[in-house]
Amino acid sequence: MSQFNQHKGFSRTFEEGKLTLGLVYPLETYAGNVPEMHLEEQIKLGKLAEDGDFAALFVRDVPLNDPHFGDVGQMYDPWIFLSHIAAHTKNIALGTASAITSFQHPLNLAKSAASLDKISDDRLLFGLATGDRPIEFDAFGVDRNQRSEFYQEALQVMRDTWSTSFPIVNTERVKLTGVTDILPKPTRGNIPVLVTGFSGQTLGWIAEHGDGWMSYPRNPAQQRRVIADFRALTEEFKPFSQSLHIDLSENPNEGPTPIHLGFRTGHKFLIDYLHKLQKIGVNHVLFNNKDAQRPAEEIIQELSEEVVPHFPALK
Question: How far is CA 176 from the centre of its chain?
Answer without folding.
Answer: 29
